[in-house]
Design a protein that fits this description.
Residues 50-69 are annotated as: Disordered. By secondary structure, this protein is an alpha+beta fold. Bound molecules: 6-O-phosphono-alpha-D-glucopyranose.
Length: 706
């Protein structure tokens, strides 16, 4: 039972994880060769940073030596995976299948390790230190990640390193997670969790075994939905640039295999591309996929990750996600090492295709079509892209350049899951400042910015004026209403009164202000259409937007394509040659002098909650505010309103509502002066002052600022 397994690790550019390869080695084998991926670009950057810190020359990105927390094995192979480190350091965290003799491994692998550690101690290294006689448990399915293992590129060393593991199954305990733990991972119609350790107070919740169970559950759900016990189903899987992407990709693939589904890996992809793969009819790209999974946590910090699921009907909603998580909890209890091994040796197949080529060529074709089938309708336009080191870098080289645009000055196109430049989020002030600066510095005609997984976007005109929030909606509404006069535009709840009058009075359309949440907005547009009210655009102030002509696909890149179409067709018709065509379209949109959002937190543990759910408490606050409005002659409740309390008064308006996900009451205020904003703030402050579990400090700051 305790026979030592010797695994020879061979550094190549393959991209399979060491762990999954080791998994496939029959227990009887005494020696095997395993390939290690040299890494994604982001991780290569870490490697170079580490090289510099080790006094060795880095090759590029000299200015970015800010990531210092990865451990180094000075020779041959470097283990830099924080998740591996945590598996070693906290053996109870994951399912433990094997024991890994760290002492022996470190010693045999690297005699200089100890010296190096003494010189440069850090917490991860100490977790890996050849420990006091210690045998630490190693979750074999955990990521001895391809991209987190690399060797110094500038040292002429052997390409092989040896790990010793014993092959005995461990009886160490498996963390017992139940349905409640799984349901905590639900975030509306997404799944989100912590995938990388190291952030205080944020323990890992998206372990690999949890991920396997979730993917297996999606497989089960899909089989049930498609009533397809006898037909082979395939699921496409893509990911954004997060550092945990590869680990979760492998875990998702294993989980789908457990349910007997075929896996088609797309690699780095966008969320809309994943949905699109369920619609594409092209067998050479193994499409259509019966289902799709995007591994992403959108704009959240580097340590988070999650999943979005699609079928050809669109993104899965809350009810289905809950169902999948409940199934996952059951699977988790019963999944065994044996199931996982079978999934890798069984009938399921895992293939890779470059689907982004199909998706991007669809975007290119759409612009060409709009410009009367011109091959390069954007010749002469200078457009800069800011992908925030997420997955959207493709837009410059694969969409704009084939259309003839110049893209010099584009920035942060390379995927880097530490998001070193700014948060990839068009709602973020710093991000918008970054793209605005790039437009002005490069004297570009237009700037385009995406979030991490490219389902949200915003733009900037040549003068540096932002097309985001209400202005982006106004622009898209103008474009869509030219094509479909009189149509209804569905938006989220925090849109301005100015937007309503712009859509209705200037553009002749109808504004249907619904709830916050991209899925809510899209579903409402679909519902309106099916009930006979024509609508072609569902869009949020967050930069999410979907068009009927694009299968109601929530696609930030397609929103930008609509803008490009406008530029290209105006040029083709001789009616404009720069972004003023766009700026002119939003002429007449009234904008408030003051627009702010304060997020008032509910303390879930406050005694005033009396054990109630924070939502119930929030509803009580809203009810109280509602009652207080009735008696105030200066205020008027919005006649039609689908969430929270929206009130007009003092020349502006406010909306207090419950956040979709968090124990927070977001308060949006728009007014024509600071004083009026304060008056509106005071209305809310007076109504909520007795609610001690509500953190009103931001509101106090506003009301005391005058
Ligand atoms: O309700 P909030 O906390 O403001 O969050 C609302 C937002 O949540 C997520 O980010 C969704 O992707 C958005 O579509 C939604 O608008």
């Amino acid at each position: 039972m305790n026979r030592m397994r010797k695994v020879r690790v061979n550094c190549t550019n393959g991209d399979e994880s060491v762990a999954s390869r080791i998994n496939r080695i029959p227990p009887s084998a005494s020696q095997a060769t395993v390939a290690i991926d040299a890494g994604t670009r982001g991780n290569t950057t870490y490697a170079r940073t580490l090289q510099r810190q080790a006094g060795e020359p880095g090759r590029r990105n000299e200015g970015r030596a800010r990531r210092t927390h990865f451990p180094i094995f000075k020779e041959k192979t470097h283990i830099s995976s924080p998740d591996l480190v945590s598996s070693l350091a906290s053996p109870m965290e994951g399912k433990v299948f094997q024991k890994f003799n760290v002492e022996q491994c470190c010693y045999l692998q690297n005699k200089q390790f100890k010296t190096r550690y003494q010189r440069e101690p850090n917490p991860y290294m100490s977790a890996l230190l050849p420990c006091p006689r210690g045998k630490l448990a190693w979750n074999l399915n955990s990521s001895l990640r391809a991209h987190t293992l690399f060797k110094y590129q500038n040292t002429a060393i052997s390409k092989q390193t040896t790990f010793y593991c014993n092959a005995a199954l461990s009886s160490a305990s498996v963390p017992s997670l139940d349905k409640t733990d799984f349901l905590k991972l639900q975030n509306g119609s997404d799944i989100r969790g912590v995938a990388v350790p190291g952030v205080e107070g944020e323990p890992v919740s998206l372990h690999e075994p949890v991920t396997e169970a979730i993917a297996a559950a999606f497989g089960q759900w899909l089989l049930h939905k498609k009533k397809a016990e006898s037909r082979r189903l395939r699921v496409s899987v893509g990911h954004d640039s997060r550092i945990s992407a590869q680990t979760l990709l492998e875990a998702v693939s294993r989980g789908l295999g457990v349910s007997g589904l075929d896996v088609v890996q797309f690699g780095l992809a966008s969320t809309p591309a994943m949905f699109n793969s369920t619609l594409t009819e092209d067998e050479s790209f193994l499409c259509p996929a019966d289902g799709a999974i995007m591994i992403t946590a959108s704009h959240l910090p580097y340590n988070r990750n999650g999943f979005k699921f699609f079928t050809s009907d669109g993104g899965l909603g809350k009810v289905d996600i809950k169902n999948i998580l409940e199934r996952a909890a059951d699977i988790y209890k019963n999944i065994s090492d044996e199931n996982l091994r079978k999934s890798q040796t069984g009938n399921s197949s895992t293939k890779k295709v470059d689907y982004m080529a199909v998706y991007t060529s669809g975007l290119v074709k759409a612009v060409r079509r709009a410009a009367g089938d011109l091959e390069k309708p954007l010749v002469g336009f200078h457009i800069v892209v800011d992908a925030g080191n997420g997955a959207g870098g493709f837009f410059a080289a694969k969409v704009l350049e084939p259309l003839g645009a110049i893209t010099t000055g584009s920035q942060f196109l390379e995927p880097d899951g530490m998001f070193p430049n700014h948060i990839p989020n068009p709602e973020d002030k710093t991000a918008m400042e970054a793209i605005t600066k790039a437009v002005l510095d490069n004297k570009a005609d237009l700037g385009i910015i995406f979030d991490t997984d490219v389902d949200r976007s915003a733009a900037v005109d040549s003068t540096g004026r932002e097309f985001n929030r209400n202005r982006l909606i106004a622009l898209l509404s103008a474009i869509v209403l030219e094509e479909h006069p009189g149509t209804t535009i569905v938006t989220d709840s925090v849109t301005s009164d100015g937007l309503t009058s712009f859509i209705e009075k200037k553009l002749g359309g109808k504004h249907h202000r619904f709830k916050r949440g991209y899925k809510n907005v899209i579903d409402e547009a679909i519902r309106l259409n099916s009930s006979g009210e024509e609508t072609h655009l569902a869009i949020e102030t967050s930069g999410h937007g979907a068009l009927k002509e694009n299968h109601w696909l929530d696609d930030g890149a397609y929103l930008m394509v609509k803008i490009l179409n406008k530029l290209a067709s105006a040029r083709a018709a001789g009616s404009g040659s720069g972004s003023e065509v766009l700026t002119d379209l939003v002429e007449g949109l009234e904008e408030p002098k003051v627009a702010l959002e304060l997020r008032l937190k509910i303390d879930k543990n406050h005694p005033d909650l009396e054990g109630k759910d924070f939502r119930e408490y929030g509803e009580t606050v809203l009810q109280h505010l509602s009652n207080s409005i009735e008696t105030n002659p200066n205020l008027k409740r919005a006649p039609v309103n689908y969430e929270g309390i929206r009130v007009s008064g003092f020349g502006g308006w406010f909306l207090l509502r419950l956040s979709l996900h968090d124990p927070v009451l977001p308060l949006n205020i728009e007014a024509q002066s600071e004083d009026d904003a304060v008056k509106l703030g005071l209305v809310v402050a007076n109504a909520v002052k007795e609610f001690n579990a509500l953190d009103t400090s931001a509101l106090s700051k506003l009301t005391h600022s005058s």
